[in-house]
Amino acid sequence: MRTDSSILVRHVIAEIAKVLVLTTTVMVIVVAFGAVIRPLAQNLLGPLGVAKYVALATVPMLQFALPFAGGFAATLVTHRMVSDNEFLAMSVSGLSYRSIFRPHVVLGVALAIIMAILVNAVIPPFWAAMKSVITQDAAAVFVATVRDGKAFNAGRMMVYADQAELLDAPVGVADRIGMRGVVAVEFGAGGVPETEFVAESAVVDLYRVEGRAGQSRLLMKASMRQVNVVRLLDGTVAFVPEANPDAVEVQSASERSPNMANLIDLVSMMRNPDVSGDSAQRRAEIARMVRSARALALADAQLRRGIAVPFVDDRSGRRYELRAAGIQAGQAVGAPGGSVIIEESQDGRLLRRGRGASARFELAPLERGDDASTAVRLTVTLIKPTVEGLSASWPETLDGVRPDMTLPAAAMTADALEDEAMAASQNTALLGPIAKAIGSTAGSWAKLRREVVWEATAHAWMRLAQAVCAPLLLLMGAVLAVQMRRSSPLLVYAIAFVPAIIDILLINSGQHSMRDGELVWGFLVMWSGNAAVAGIVWWAWRKVAVH
């Protein structure tokens, strides 16, 4: 045998590669079919959807199949070579064990590089595509969920119904669903339930809106009939013949969740968590609240100087002027013995003048066309209003008006915005209930930002640990095959399979710990499995080298 080991390297790599490809193919197909069981059991996929889902699932399943397939292939091929005395012949011819095991090391390094590319660049888009296969037929998912007696979660709204069926959709609507016996809950900032709708019937329309780079958003718009509306925050109950809640986003193909993000996106999430869709939306809510708090602070200062505060209703074009002594606890109050006055005008002509003991301010829901980062929308309620000199009755509540004044620019950095929000949350003397709402939303946003960073960090380290795991399992199978040359190859692999499974479980356990904020402990758990496998490889190698 030639001392030059290049022929040996090519031969051994080719033999292991053959078994590796065959084993990987079988394992990927089996695991991919296993992945489709849950969507099938929930009636979320049709026949074509199953075929597409399985085809897409084969690529993500490689990250689980390749490490085990590499260990299995190395065990079988190395054990056969030892049984046929090929290792003995190579050793007698002058090759050291370092040279004999060089093909395994080379293949292991190649496998680590392939795994790193797969988990960081190739696989994430396939996870997104698998999710898209299920949500493409969102109407069928909706109906199947309702018929299972479960609530359908759609962004900020959760819907439950006694009956649901698909209806013919008009032009411009992707799908239409009819329901009877409907209960819907609308959630606000921090996932707090705000409004509950109990309707006799409802029609839900699904819209697909194309975004940048071919990415799409799925929006849901509900129209309810014979509705009892309950505002859970203040206990207000009302009956209306028709209710049309704002459209909510069911699913966004552009959502950059860590599982579907490549390595560059993960680094971006760690540096700036607001690139996450949920965090960016919560930041926009905080920016709006901060601007509302600024508006009330400026209004209070203006009122205390005896200057009226103007408001504008962009929908009707009407203007309002508020006169009061100042703002306390989120309410405009009059001077001792005085009243709060609001005058309504249009095109410079006075329409109505309302007078009351006080006026309450609340944050109003944003209109769909508003820019959430800059818009300031308030509800101004005049308490026990009376009308002076005009025949028309006074509209007690001015819904969705904005202060007509120049506001300071919103804080640009996340830290500055969070600091200002927390400061506003403590100013209950001025803002009252608004301060509590700002504090709750700011706290949930800060928590969400931390969770985005933790999850992105956990995914990045998990992918690196998986990439390192693959060559370690390959080397462990090869070295144990030589150490246990008198045993069956399947017995050798069965023994190697136990630490391999433990390693994978420890990697995933460490990832979950890091996602919960236990970064140091999660890191130690995640890499303890690889360390144990590396220890087994070193122990078996020493045994082989001695004998």
Walk me through the structure.
This protein has 3 domains: 6-136 and 457-546, no CATH class; 138-255; 278-448, no CATH class. It is 52% helix and 23% strand. The protein contains 15 helices and 17 strands. It has helices spanning 6-35, 37-41, 47-57, 62-83, 86-92, 97-100, 102-136, 138-147, 263-271, 277-304, 414-425, 428-431, 433-483, 489-515, 519-546, and strands at 152-154, 157-167, 175-187, 193-210, 216-231, 236-243, 248-252, 309-313, 318-323, 326-328, 331-333, 340-346, 349-356, 358-363, 378-383, 386-387, 397-403. The strands form 2 sheets. The chain has a 10-stranded antiparallel beta sheet. β1 and β2 form a beta hairpin.
Radius of gyration: 32 Å
Structural class: alpha+beta
Strand order of the largest sheet: 10-11-14-15-17-8-9-12-13-16
Number of beta strands: 17
In helices, the fraction of residues equals 40-55%
What fraction strand? 15-25%
Oligomer: single chain
How far the N terminus sits from the C terminus, by CA atoms, comes to 22 Å
For the largest beta-sheet, the strand count, sense and barrel status come to: 10 strands, antiparallel
Secondary structure layout:
Blueprint: H1 6-35, H2 37-41, H3 47-57, H4 62-83, H5 86-92, H6 97-100, H7 102-136, H8 138-147, E1 152-154, E2 157-167, E3 175-187, E4 193-210, E5 216-231, E6 236-243, E7 248-252, H9 263-271, H10 277-304, E8 309-313, E9 318-323, E10 326-328, E11 331-333, E12 340-346, E13 349-356, E14 358-363, E15 378-383, E16 386-387, E17 397-403, H11 414-425, H12 428-431, H13 433-483, H14 489-515, H15 519-546
Antiparallel strand pairs: 1-2, 2-3, 3-4, 4-5, 5-6, 5-7, 8-9, 8-17, 9-12, 10-11, 11-14, 12-13, 13-16, 14-15, 15-17
Helix pairs in contact: 1-4, 1-7, 3-7, 4-7, 4-13, 4-14, 7-13, 9-13, 10-11, 10-13, 11-13, 13-14, 13-15, 14-15
